[in-house]
TrEMBL record:
Record domain GH3 C-terminal: where: 390-494
GH3 middle domain mapped to chain residues: 299-364
Pfam family, one: GH3_M
InterPro entries, per the entry: GH3, GH3_C, GH3_M
Natural source organism: Terrimonas ginsenosidimutans
Protein name: GH3 auxin-responsive promoter family protein
Superkingdom, natural source: Bacteria
Length: 510
């Protein structure tokens, strides 16, 4: 069944009328012009001369010339901070009523990302499109789409700011603002959704699970897996389908699903359809529209203007910080297989905003992408979003607390007891109590990173530490041919280098 929103003209008719069937460039230019017209009288639009870009023959190029690239710190310090004081018409018309609290940095526990009514409306449209697309899946259990929708997300009990705004997890905001017609299908319901304590929320869901007929589950894989395991254990059944026989669709995003899939499928009594979506606090970026697609299709015609900065030495420094005037390509200029950092301009007042993800196009014709990582070193096995800033802060704390020198360190993530764990390797030649240091690092990370704190009480089951000598770190770099000030020890070990690191610790060679 074709999407009623994305009906295409027959190829011959489209050719005859000289209307491109699916012209990504035209879609994106139309989106950009719409955004600029709506925001041209804001403070931001006046400063960066949106009217001038609109009057130019090449609106997109002039927009790129007039407006600088922003990361979170830049746009928050110069613009968004004002909106928290209730100032209207800063980067988007009107006052901001909601803020999504995104993963923490070393400066503060959380980032405040504006969420406007326009953005919520766009997200809802994309959810409906995604739902409709499932009807085209060969293996989809269409009956599942008429049953209950279980959404496992953040609490809808949001914190209130002095200027009258509300802030919380994006999934909590979306659940709180769900359309009235969705109420019949929505689970776990308003009362349970408002619970902030994750364990209490899970226990409530388990208690009521048998009363619901769930066909469609949305959430982070680790949390959903934990919830199903608890239900299976509580009701002494073999699999989740004995409780929810119509469960047929699982929508996930935020972290790679592949490490979970094997364990997830052990909880099932029959096959289900998996749908990956690309939803950030800044907007609904894309979703899988085909069952066996390699990647997610970018949503090009719904209020997000995308730019793609080649993720290379020309545009980024060694720490992953973007240069002042990066090369930014539009959708029709990208190449398959190359890695790009994603910039977004949205109807929530983000302009040429770098969300920090790196992506790669796997199908140019369909504008399908996969997420390849982050612009900076990052560790996020289950959504803990542990950044190098967080890690550096933890090392700084232990150095000051115990008066020790830690010249090098690295962190790895790995499967552990059916879930995941981190292991820290720190270099110091000082005498230390390793357990006290481990505990202090863990405590620091919990304080400065909300997502880490949440996951340490759920899917991130362990945090370990091994103390090595500085000489061992230097020896490894020497064996890699990377001794010298121009080479930096990786803060996060992954892939081939992790294999070499493990081999080096076992044998002394790589």
């Amino acid at each position: 069944m074709a999407s009623i929103i994305d009906i295409k003209l027959p190829r011959a008719l489209a050719t005859a009328l000289r209307i491109p069937q699916n012209d990504p460039k035209r879609q994106q230019v139309k989106v950009l012009k719409k955004l600029l017209k709506k925001a041209r009288f804001t403070e931001f639009g006046q400063k960066y001369r949106f009217d001038e870009a609109l009057l130019n023959r090449n609106t997109a190029k002039r927009f790129q010339e007039l407006v600088p690239v922003h990361d979170y710190n830049k746009i928050y310090n110069e613009w968004w901070e004002k909106t928290l004081e209730g100032v209207p018409d800063v980067t988007w018309p009107g006052k901001i009523k909601f803020y999504a609290l995104s993963s923490g940095t070393s400066e503060s526990a959380s980032k405040y990302i504006p969420v406007t009514k326009d953005l919520l409306r766009s997200n809802t449209i994309n959810y409906i499109r995604q739902l409709i697309s499932v009807f085209g899946y060969e293996d989809a259990n269409r009956k599942a789409l008429t049953k209950g929708f279980l959404m496992l997300g953040g609490a809808t009990d949001l914190q209130k700011g002095a200027a009258g705004w509300y802030a919380g997890d994006l999934s909590g905001i979306l659940a709180k603002k769900r359309p009235f017609w969705f109420q019949t299908f929505y689970k776990p319901g308003g009362r349970i959704a408002a619970i902030k304590d994750w364990n209490q929320k899970l226990n409530e869901i388990v208690e009521h699970a048998k009363e619901w007929d769930i066909g469609y589950i949305v959430g982070v894989p680790a949390w959903c897996q934990m919830c199903m395991e608890m239900i299976i254990e509580h009701y002494k059944v073999k699999n989740i389908h004995e409780i929810w026989p119509n469960f047929g669709v699982f929508v996930h995003g935020g972290v790679a699903f592949e490490p979970y899939k094997k364990g997830f499928e052990k909880l099932l009594g029959k096959p289900i359809v998996y749908i990956e979506n690309y939803l950030s606090s800044e907007g609904f970026i894309g979703y899988k529209t085909r069952e066996h697609a390699k990647g997610m299709q970018l949503v090009l015609n719904n209020n997000i203007f995308f730019e793609f900065v080649p993720f290379d030495d020309k545009n980024f420094d060694a720490d992953g910080k973007i240069n002042a005037n990066p090369e930014a390509k539009m959708i029709h200029e990208v190449e398959a297989g190359k890695e790009y950092a994603l910039l977004m301009s949205t109807n929530a007042g983000a302009w040429r905003y770098m969300i920090g993800d790196t992506i790669k196009f796997v199908d140019l014709e369909k504008s399908e992408v996969v997420i390849t990582g982050r612009t900076k070193h990052f560790l996020s096995l289950v959504g803990e979003h542990l950044s190098v800033e967080n890690m550096n802060k933890a090392i700084e704390d232990i150095s000051e607390e115990y008066n020790i020198s830690v010249p090098e360190y690295t962190v790895v993530g790995f499967p552990y007891e059916g879930f995941f764990a981190h292991k820290w390797y720190i270099a110091t030649d000082d005498q230390i109590d390793a357990e006290k240091v481990r505990q202090r690092i863990d405590d620091t990370l919990r304080k400065i990173n909300d997502d880490y704190a949440t996951e340490r009480d759920s899917a991130l089951k362990g945090m370990f530490l091994e103390v090595l000598s500085e000489e061992q770190f230097l020896k490894f770099m020497e064996l890699k041919g990377k001794l010298g000030s121009q080479h930096k020890f990786p803060r996060v070990m992954k892939g081939k280098m992790l294999e070499e690191w493990n081999r080096f610790l076992e044998t002394g060679t790589i």
